[in-house]
Amino acid sequence: MSQKNDNFIDKTFTVLADILLKVLPATKEEKQAFSYYRYGMSAQSNGDYAEALENYYEALKLEEDPFDRSYILYNIGLIYGNNGDYSKALEYYHQALDLNARLPQALNNIAVIYHYQGTRSSEKKEFEIAQSNFDKAASYWKKAIRLAPNNYIEAQNWLKVTGKLNENEIF
Q: Which domain does 117 fall in, by range?
């Protein structure tokens, strides 16, 4: 059932995207950038990360709008994060945030990476490094929660349980 719904959503998105490309006033480059972005999203959802990256990089060459570029960069970060290349994922998430500071999902993903690194450092008994990473995770989760207060409930609970949330901080 879920696969059927996913296919329906993918097909619906494709049809709507094609209509938008035809009716919206946009330059040839903008339309081409959107096509690359759309193909990248499709490849990414199918798990074909290499093809997705190719399309995202092509979209970046053509896309001039900072807001749209931020989502391309964010998706590139997702791919690197999913493949375990956390330093590259962080690099792309930060580039996305430089263009669009209101991307709570990028802030959340940065926090998740730092939390993961903190947990790994803690397991290795590298407690100072772990604490530094947990502090970074807390900082990014607080920013994400401020932008999307109804999201990231687990992060909110983690902040409370670990004492990383000051009494005067309210989301």
A: 102-170
Read off the DSSP letter of residue 69: H
Of all helices (H) and strands (E), which one includes residue 23?
A: helix 2-23
Amino acid in the structure at residue 52: A
C-alpha torsion 41→44→50→53, nearest 10: 40
Whole-angstrom Cα distance, residue 166 to residue 30? 45
**pLDDT tens digits for range 43-80:** 999 999 999 999 999 999 999 999 999 999 999 999 99
In this predicted model, what pLDDT tens digit does every residue of 82-135 receive, in sequence order? 999 999 999 999 999 999 999 999 999 999 999 999 999 999 999 999 999 999
On whether both 166 and 128 belong to a single domain, the answer is: yes
- Say how far apart CA 159 and CA 106 lie, in whole Å: 18
> Based on the domain organization, do 119 and 166 belong to the same domain?
yes
Q: Among residues 59, 89, 119, which one ends one of the domains?
A: 89
Query: For the whole model, what pTM was predicted?
Result: 0.83
Q: What is the phi-psi region of residue 24: left when phi exceeds 0, alpha when psi lies from -120 to 50, beta otherwise? A: beta
69 & 112 share domain: no
